[in-house]
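Agenda item 2: PRP complex prediction
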Amino acid sequence: MLIRSPEQDIERILFTEKTIAARVEAIASDLVSRLNGSRPVMICVLKGAAFFYIDLCRCMNCAMDMDFISISSYGAGTRSTGIVRLIKDLDCNITDRDVIIVEDIIDSGLTIQYLKQLLSARNPKSITTVSFLDKCARHDSSLKTDLTGFDIPDEFVVGYGLDYANYYRNLPYIGILKPECYR
Ligand code: PRP
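Presented output:
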């Protein structure tokens, strides 16, 4: 692991703050129009989705409940361990509620698959999934979310909530990490 500074470690910026903000606004208005007046439970999948979730909720001009779930499958590596762990469950009851699962990225698709199974068993009225990024080449198309910010290639991305070994989550943009940092 080689961690220096963003100037040295980021190969290039994929999405700037401005591009991110414009896409988040568009997703927010799409979600609100799908809701048709219902008050959803917005679920943030910690930790990666934190920035996207907060920005998205702030842009949604409707009543909502906010809740948080913590899932992990990556540890300090660059590939999923294949084992999804529930670290913190929701606080609220989602039975008969319209639920919106907010993710930062779909990679192997294991986490979203696990979450949909876990939450469906609680009999919500509906589940809508939204992810800011999607590495579509890495998973089966059946695991695609209902709404996606951007489809991206299979590159290691950090920033706007996404980390490498907990580094770089707080970058305001999404950048591609140089392979020499994690090889
Ligand atoms: C990341 C990311 C997604 C998941 C996507 O979480 O935030 O939840 O991996 O990968 P998958 O589609 O292969 O399952 P991670 O386990 O790294 O935890 P973190 O959000 O706390 O960083």
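Discussion summary: The chain has a mean pLDDT of 94.
Owner for follow-up: CH.
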